[in-house]
Structures are given as C-alpha cells and as structure tokens.
Specification:
256 residues, elongated, six-stranded antiparallel sheet, alpha/beta, single chain
C-alpha cells in the first residue's frame, strides 16, 4: 500500500455525535505513533475540530489504544481490544464488516464501557503493486499477505492485488512465528515490510526486504533495503541475484 492512510468514514451510534466522537478519538490517537492514528488526527484537524487532551494514554500492541478524554474512558482499536475490556462490539459488527469488505480498516471506538462508533481508514494499493506481484509469481514465487489488519479488509486488498494466501489479524509478536512455521515446512522465505512491528519477521526471514521510507528498525533488521519503496525492487533483486549466480557458475566452468 502507499503507506499514507486516510479517513474514509466516521460512524457514530445513537447518543454519540459524529464530530464529538471523531474529536475524542483524534485526541486519544494524538499520543500514538501508529500510521492510522496519524491519519485520524490529521483528518480531524482538517475538519476544524478542537482536539481534546488525553490522560492516562496506553498503547496496546496489536489492539489499539486506551485513555481518558474529556472525562470519558475511551478505547480505539480492533474487535480484540473491545472484547479484552469486556465490551460488546455487536452493535458495530455489521457496519465494520461492510467497511472491511470495501478494503477499509474499521477502528472501533468505545466510551465508558460501551460501543460508540467507528472511524474507517483506508490505505490504497500503490499503482504498481499489482504488476509487481504478477512479476513475482512469474518468477516462480509464492506470494502471501501477512498483516495485523482485519481479516475481511486483508482479503479484500489481497483480492485486488492478486494474492491468494492471506495471514490476517496476526499480532506483532506472532509475525516472526508465521515465518518460522513456513521455514519449518522447508520453504525459503523472503519478507517485505516497513514498520516497527515487521522488524522481528524481517530478521527471522531468509531474506528481509525493508522499504526505504520505512522505520529505521525495519531497515536495520532487513538484509536488503528497497530504496524506491516499490515491490518491483524485490523482482529486480531476485533477477540480479539469479544473473549473478549464473555468471559465477559460468566463470567456474570456464576456469575448470
């Protein structure tokens, strides 16, 4: 994806005003460094909303964030976050699935122990991703999508990109575990990623490929950095490596 997510919809349940819900969510996300949090904060500012201060902020890895905004206990994240806090997400389920099926990530919001609404965020595919993934398949690679995102959202994006194999709703600490499972089956695994959460998986993979515009720790953990940030760089790297090995073999043959 482009790595520049944007807010596409704000849905408030009865008893919660849309602008109030959006402003409170933005106030909570202001303390977070997550890309989706940045998108929500930027969109709220563009609407001209007053962003409230957050107290007792806590980022919960792989789930979302919690804090106190305008005296209300607020949660913003995925379904797992609400369920962990004993909050019924059923009132949001139908709309969340509809948004996810359209390739958008639903950020569920709860206030004072009950579901309040959804802020939907979308990170569109890069224009060249579909062609790059086709190139990888033509090179004989099996391509999979590994993400912590909502399963329905992940499948919708994978379908557009031409990817059949999807590992979704994977906790950050478990991404490296998926790589290890594939390796245990005898697979040689390359992992492309750009976030802090991708670093352990990049280090675990046989070949880690970091996007040049990604987090420093991702670049440090990977063996190869794609300066342009395009998936075509993976196909280019494989083509160069295969040509290099072929050249080495030709030289050895000539020498002997």
């Amino acid at each position: 994806t482009t790595g520049r997510p944007t807010v596409t919809a704000v849905v408030a349940l009865p008893d919660f005003g849309e602008d109030d819900l959006f402003a409170a969510t933005a106030g909570l996300e202001a303390a977070s460094e997550h890309p989706l949090a940045r998108a929500i904060l930027d969109a709220a500012r563009e609407r001209g909303l007053a962003i409230p201060q957050t107290e007792r902020f806590e980022a919960i890895a792989g789930q979302g964030a919690s804090g106190v905004v305008n005296g209300r206990a607020l949660l913003a994240g995925n379904r797992r976050l609400l369920e962990t806090h004993g909050i019924d997400s059923a009132p949001l389920r139908t709309e969340a699935e509809r948004l996810a099926a359209a390739g958008q990530t639903p950020v569920l919001v709860a206030a004072d122990g009950r579901a309040a609404g959804i802020v939907a965020v979308a990170d569109p595919l890069k224009p060249d991703s579909i062609a790059a993934i086709r190139r990888l398949r033509e090179l004989g690679l099996r391509v999979a999508l590994l993400t912590g995102d909502h399963a329905t959202t992940a499948r919708a994006i994978a379908l557009r990109a031409g990817i059949a194999e999807v590992y979704a709703e994977v906790m950050p600490a478990d991404k490296a575990g998926v790589i290890a499972e594939l390796q245990a089956r005898g697979e040689v695994v390359g992992m492309a990623g750009d976030g802090i959460n991708d670093a352990p998986a990049l280090a675990r993979a046989d070949v880690g490929l970091a996007m040049g515009a990604g987090a420093d720790i991702a670049i440090e953990s990977a063996g190869i950095t794609l300066v342009r940030g395009s998936l075509h760089g993976i196909a280019d790297a494989i083509a160069i490596s295969r040509a290099t090995v072929l050249n080495i073999r030709q030289n050895l043959f000539g020498a002997f």
